[in-house]
Design a protein that fits this description.
The protein is of the alpha/beta class and about 290 residues long. Helices cover about 45% and strands about 15% of the residues.
């Protein structure tokens, strides 16, 4: 496939909830329209930012079907399907409504901390059965295991369906190793909003972003400037956004993002346990930052 459809800014959509903690589909439609109108290049449904560990199997499918409907073919769509039980991940891939999905984002197994050999075996099994192209997702801060550049490059070279990686190790040397050694048609995407400009300078081609839910227009402008190698403009935008990006994560994701989105009037500031709203102090800092925009 043409991996360039994932170049630029992808947004890891949050899942809005009502006061009784049901999925708020009205707010989800508002969010999809908001981020598309503000310039994102593609959507990511059911990523970890979507609080997927707290969604039932039926709810996940309902969210995906809703995003497909609200998107209405306007931009490409990625669906998150990952986990620490390889066979179950394969079964989910085969049971989800993926006809109108362009790729699957699959996070490394969490908690059971597989070796690099285990990661290779996990992804090769998924690759063998996947009905869609796969974007790997390396986020050791959440999963407890880092997938090395060597492992990623091996998968890129040996697996037909694996087309790219969302890299969120925060290790810039590892990022440079990926950029140096990857196959030409393997796409590198940042998973760290605050590092995306630097990673693009090293050879990445975009980002799957949390901040793109919240500061969509300016964040997309920063990524576009970076991809055009206009780093003077990109730096100015990044340093304007950086305090806000930091605030999104200071008390966990998506608590910060939902705080911003509630201030924008796009949804209620409601999460499912064990995630709770940010503290009053952080909420005030977020409100103060938003005034600077």
């Amino acid at each position: 496939m043409n991996v360039k459809i994932f170049r630029g800014t992808g947004v890891a959509l949050v899942t809005p909830f009502t006061a009784d903690h049901a999925i708020d589909f009205v707010a989800l439609e508002q969010l999809v329209n908001h981020v598309i109108n503000q310039g994102v290049h593609y959507l990511v449904a059911l990523g970890t930012t979507a609080e997927t560990p707290t969604l039932s199997a039926d709810e996940k499918k309902a969210v995906l079907q809703a995003v497909i409907k609200y998107n209405n073919h306007r931009v490409p769509l990625v669906c998150g399907i990952g986990g620490n039980h390889t066979d179950e991940v394969v079964q989910q891939m085969l049971s989800y409504p993926l006809d109108e999905v362009d790729a699957i984002l699959s996070v490394t197994p969490y908690y059971n901390k597989p070796t690099q050999a285990g990661l290779l075996a996990h992804y090769k099994a998924i690759d063998q059965h996947s009905p869609k192209p796969i974007i790997l997702y390396n986020v050791p801060g959440r999963t407890g295991v880092n997938m090395t550049a060597e492992t990623t490059i091996t998968l890129a070279n040996e697996c037909n369906n694996i087309i790219g990686i969302k890299e969120a190790s925060g290790n810039m040397v590892q990022c440079m190793e990926l950029a140096k050694n990857k196959p030409a048609d393997f796409i590198l995407l940042s998973g760290d909003d605050n590092l995306a400009m630097a990673q693009i300078a090293c050879g990445f081609e975009g980002v799957i972003s949390v901040a793109a839910n919240c500061f969509t227009s300016l964040f997309c402008e920063m990524i576009n400037a970076s991809l055009a190698y206009d780093f003077q403009k990109a730096q100015q935008l990044l340093y304007k956004l950086l305090p806000g990006i930091d605030l999104l994560f200071v008390e966990g994701n998506p608590a910060g993002a939902k705080c911003v989105l509630s201030e924008l009037g796009l949804m209620q500031n409601i999460m499912r346990l064990p995630v709770v709203p940010v503290s009053n102090a952080t909420h005030q800092q977020i409100k103060d930052f938003m005034k600077t925009l």
